[in-house]
């Protein structure tokens, strides 16, 4: 959905950043897409961050580790409990990468360190890539190729929050974790009490019960005797009618939740 992405983020000025886009007529893979914008990085160390990760990893510390090790690449690694859901990375005592296992079962796993999809590279990494406009993948191609050529690169183990938002369950958990302070995210709205944020021009009528954490967007109306049991996120222009009960859910965009309705664990666009 390139058009939707660009229409939403535009030039990035809303967030105080400058966004430049690269369009691919045909998908070039995770690494091929980076090769295609090689000139953008000039001759300096650069980061590649997967867009579907929610994290507050200390990138400054990670870059410091990368510089200290002196490798051509550093993969940021995260500890996982269920290795069967991730490709895991094998490292030696110096955190030098020695190999990979693709989604091993618990008893077969030789590591519990997963590839987080965040990488630090030196510009000379591009000499190990094929020419531009060719499909090339970090996990399937580049990293195994580096090992086969005995190129030294490393893994940085972090201890901060990381969520691979690959489905609705992870998406919901990431939003809830943000409300619960498990990941450093700015919550919109005015904090009216611990764990409750309310946007502009909201109306909360008598008898409403709000159990934190709850984030209510702008121009929302919560009618009398409605109950919100957090974690709850309500998007802008939402109306929650009388005696409705919401439990652990997300409601984005404008909309209406009717009288006496019960929503449990719902994600509504």
Automatic annotation (TrEMBL):
InterPro entries: Hexapep (IPR001451), Mannose-1P_guanyltransferase (IPR050486), NTP_transferase_dom (IPR005835), Nucleotide-diphossugar_trans (IPR029044), Trimer_LpxA-like_sf (IPR011004). This is Nucleotidyl transferase domain-containing protein. Residues 4-177 form the Nucleotidyl transferase domain.
